[in-house]
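Researcher: Good morning. I'm working through a list of sequences from a screen, and I'd like to move beyond sequence-only analysis. For each chain I'm collecting a predicted structure so we can compare shapes side by side. This is the next one on the list. No need for commentary yet; just the structure.
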Amino acid sequence: MSSHLVCGNLGGFSTRGLSKSASALGLASAPRRAPLCSPTVQRASSISTLVERVFASLKQPSNSYCHKHTRLGPTVTCTRRLVSKATTTEAHTSTLTGMGSAQQQVAALFKEALAKVVTEGDVPEPIVLPTQNPKFGDYQCNNALPLLKKLPKGTFKNPREVAQAIIDALPESPLITEVSIAGPGFINTTLSREWAAAQLKDLRTNGAESWKPNVSPTKVIVDFSSPNIAKEMHVGHLRSTIIGDTMCRVLEFCGHEVIRLNHVGDWGTQFGMLIEYMADHSPELLEAEGEVDTAPIADLQAFYKKAKVKFDEDADFKERSQLRVVALQGGDVQTLAAWQRICEVSRKEFQALYDRLDVVIEERGESFYNPIIPDVLTKLGEAGLTEMSDGAECIFPEVRKEGQPPLIVRKSDGGFNYASTDLAAVYHRVFTLGAKRVIYVTDAGQQTHFYAVFDAARRAGWLEGGVSLEHCGFGLVLGEDGKRFRTRSTEVVRLVDLLDEAKAKCVEQLQERGRDDLDEESMQAAGSAMGYGAVKYADLRQNRMTNYTFSFERMLDLKGNTAVYLLYAYARIKSIKDKVDIPLEDEGITLEHEKEWALANHILKFPEITETVAAELAPNKLCEYLYNLSTIYNEFYTECKVIGSEYEASRLQLCDCTLRIMKACFDMLGIQPLNRI
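Model: Good morning. Structure tokens for this chain:
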């Protein structure tokens, strides 16, 4: 079986949710609910090169059809219609519930057709992509050109003939109304509006959760956040925490079993320094048994700085600290108790931030893997991967390049390091937890390290059976000066300070808008939802691999692609919907106006975007989809009168469908929508 490498204690962290006063304000509830796909094919410079690349990609396991494409040549519309517009009852027989996205269902139709055209050998997988221009239809099948090259010579003269044969073999379906051929055999398809209306009714009946992609559930581990014990979380932890949480939410929505792990830095030589400093200045914490007052080390950041200064300046203290590390690793009871107290103080600080960000995560720090490291290194040695170099145990790459360092798994003094721990973690996650996909959300600077770890795991045979290890890297958060985001005193910005300021600015914004009807507690709750949402969205809307400039002014803008703008848009739609009691079954949905159809069509792409985001680890594409949904809705509302029109019931249902999808997107982004602002 193939493996997949992508380099693109046990304390429980949990969320406490919102206060009752926040619910009274109108904070929309956000229930929690994940696909496993190969990366998409890159855009090609010519159409033939593109199709060949897409065709080649079919040799890889994939559940995704989200490839970009180019269109050339004239369009020839076929006279055959796959289903009459009169067959509205049939349109209800095929819904997105349990059937996969519209794209997957169109692909299933072409799969049947290809099976009739290809009578010998393996039937190729359908290459179905969204069209780039809606005037050509909704989806495009690009199998004709690669199929012409595969079929016996003389079977067809050109790809257009292949395309026509595929069209002739398409089964009757309520899904598609028209098909046409463009360029060198591209088959364009148009979705039935009656079928689309049936899907929207299904959305209102069964909810957005019923629209998850049709993928095979698997166990996924996401390793994210990962702060260091005895140090405060700062802006550098923001991206890992937010991106990791969003990817967990998307994967969970798609139906996967997701394990959220916090690989905290809770082991190492720095703890010898901290514990020895505790012995010198707060011996009662070292000597006491059971519960003790940890107030002397409540400010761990200051405690750490003082210990580090003494470690650097006092040779005797440095030597005692090193001996304390030996005692910690040897399991000395008193030293272990002191270490646990330090860890507990940090956990409380971390948990307070995770609660504010509504992040659920399970701690499984470096110390958890210590007991299994020797056995894991033995297995790597038995696999012939380790060798001694300058007294250290190393794993060299298969193809050695001059100057390329090896992966050191045991230092010359016999101690373990990050590589030892990470390899032990891979082994535990694959063989003990049974994960099929493991995602590491860290900054892009750690990519080389993870490449080496993943490659060692592959060579050891740990990834057989289709196990995928992926590095979800990300860029830096910059200040307005283009450098790493820091305070004026050049200190790293504390995450708690950043969130406090975001909330305060949003409360101020609400007060300026005259929200005197809110009591203080409700005002603070609304400020939290808007402020934290603004910080998350400003990060998630970026391509994760790029650096971005942090700006409160831009992220709190009421206009443009910001969370604040989208939250206001959601509240406005909610107020329109609440004006009238919307019927569930009594009235149908009509999509005759072009803006009605544009909105419905975009809503129908929701399952596809969730699949793409999960496959590519690209939360920015979910943000883009959400922003476009709001924009398309505004165009619909501008041109299509809702309240008081003859189509009121139908259009109010479109408003409701828009709300449901917006809310699902907010939930996956970890943003709490407000029913009124």
